[in-house]
Write a structure and sequence with these properties.
486 residues; 4-stranded antiparallel beta sheet; mainly beta; 0% helix; 30 strands
């Protein structure tokens, strides 16, 4: 999920950013894996963890990104890099309020076999233009991520927030990954635009042609994936209607040889994920609407999700399903503030050929008046099947679940961000999950390897906080505000 622009928040103090020295395995002559999310080409996917509120050289909210490298045993936080705009080779300089890393995604943009990391900094100042925004590509290599190139912002304006949301995929089907970037412009009744920047991308800053689209969505959040089953990626845009009422909305853009084309309106949503839940060759769209009805009229108490099944022409007009925690078979029950659907991730956790769905509900509350655990958070795992998403044999994950490190505590927000990717190369998708207020105010990340019957490993799951990747203890960095690695 690519979250929309955050409002103003209190500043926090953190520490100096630097690249942690790495010794990455593999002979120098080894060919890179070509896997998306594998920054050093060793065949194991890696995970980037955003910390956009981190302090750099005394500058609060300058932002950092921590990169944790994958191994046969999963994520290994001792093998990490910590990247900021004060890191050698990264364009720009760390400044207060930049929020470097507010958005992150991955793709092999120069097609050298190593996945690259794309970092959005929507509050970057450009000259005198406040909040103009910036997008940077940090290049993958045998030794990990190094060096960076700025993606040109062709309309640098105060408040353009270039990089508010980013998605990387081959939207034109020519074999060259492209970038879709949200930004505001100075024209039209709705000033928000999607800029499609075609590949290939060069370290010199060269790109292919750039096109601009008007989604009719304010603060558009972008999610890429293949829905129609062809070689072109499609784009789901979630956000708010530009009518002053700020109601949620979502639209679908189909990938074409010439770019993207708006093709369908979807149900109101704030978050999205795309994956083939029924193994019919078409990607299915899952939309999250985590609000309560008093904040969002289209919502349900506690939040809900919509599944829009894919067809050869795109989203099905008739095969659409809505689930809440009150739906038969879905664990727990809908309660005010659960935020069911705030985070979504799709992957084949049990390796049965059908992709499964993880749904974060970071506001989930447990207990009773004598032991009330408000916003401890939970994750619901639902299985894919030949008939689509199933509520049979679901799994409710909390920090009190077997093998999950930690324990239920109020305010943790377990499930606030999610990522599905096969890190350890065993064929099971693994779940990376965030509790944004664990050990308040630090936050923490869980690595939950996929498993055949339980969907997650009850014996090999691990967790780590920001101190394991070089961030300071006891300070807020928005650790895990976004995840990338697939």
């Amino acid at each position: 999920m690519k979250h929309p622009l955050r409002g103003s928040t209190a500043l926090a103090a953190l520490l100096v950013a630097a690249l942690t020295p790495l010794t990455l395995s593999g002979p120098a002559s080894a060919a890179p894996s070509g896997l998306q999310g594998d920054f050093n080409g060793d065949g194991y996917r890696d995970v980037a963890v955003a910390a956009p509120a981190a302090t750099v050289d005394g500058r609060s909210w300058a932002g950092r990104v921590a990169v944790v490298y994958g191994t046969a045993n999963g994520l290994n936080p001792t093998k990490h890099q910590l990247i900021s705009q004060n890191t050698t080779g990264i364009p720009g300089a760390a400044e207060q309020g930049d929020e470097f890393g507010d958005q992150i995604t991955t793709a092999d943009l120069n097609r050298d076999g190593y996945s690259d990391l794309v970092i959005g900094t929507p509050r970057e100042k450009a000259g005198s233009a406040e909040d103009a925004g910036m997008v940077v590509i940090v290049w993958g290599s045998h030794s990990g991520l190094s060096g960076g190139t700025t993606v040109a912002n062709r309309q640098t304006l105060s408040g353009s927030y270039f990089g508010l949301s980013i998605a990387a995929a081959d939207f034109t089907g020519d074999g060259k990954p492209d970038l879709a970037v949200s930004a505001q412009s100075d024209s039209g009744t709705s000033s928000w635009r999607i800029r499609l920047i075609r590949g290939p991308f060069g370290k010199s800053g060269s790109t292919g042609r750039v096109s601009s689209y008007t989604p009719g969505v304010d603060s558009p959040a972008l999610t890429a994936g293949r829905v129609s089953g062809d070689t072109k990626a499609d784009l789901v845009v979630t956000g708010k209607q530009p009518n002053g009422d700020h109601l949620a909305t979502a639209v679908y853009y189909k990938g074409t040889a010439d770019g993207i084309s708006k093709s369908a309106s979807l149900r109101a949503a704030a978050t999205a994920a795309i994956g083939d839940l029924d193994k019919d060759g078409y990607g299915d769209i899952v939309l999250g609407n985590p609000e309560n009805p008093d904040d969002e009229p289209s919502a349900s108490t506690g939040g809900k999700i919509h599944i829009v099944y894919g067809t050869s022409s795109g989203p099905s007009a008739g095969r659409r399903v809505t689930l809440t925690q009150n739906t038969s078979g879905v664990p727990d029950s809908s309660e005010y503030g659960d935020r069911f659907g705030q985070a979504l991730a799709i992957g084949d956790f049990d390796k049965d050929g059908y992709k499964d769905l993880a749904v974060g509900a970071p506001g989930e509350t447990f207990g009773d008046e004598s032991h009330y655990l408000s916003s401890a958070g939970a994750i619901t795992l639902l299985r894919g099947s030949a008939s689509g998403l199933s509520t049979a044999r679901p799994v409710l994950l909390t920090q009190d679940s077997p093998g999950v490190p930690g324990s239920l505590e109020p305010g943790d927000g377990f499930g606030s961000s999610l990522l599905a990717s096969d890190v350890n190369r065993d064929g099971h998708a693994d779940l990376t999950a965030v509790a944004d207020n664990e050990n308040d105010p630090e936050g923490a990340v869980w690595f939950l390897p996929g498993a055949s019957s339980t969907l997650y490993s009850t014996s090999a799951s691990t967790s780590f906080g920001p101190t394991r990747v070089g961030l300071p203890a006891g300070e807020y960095s928005a650790f895990g505000a976004d995840l990338a690695g697939q």
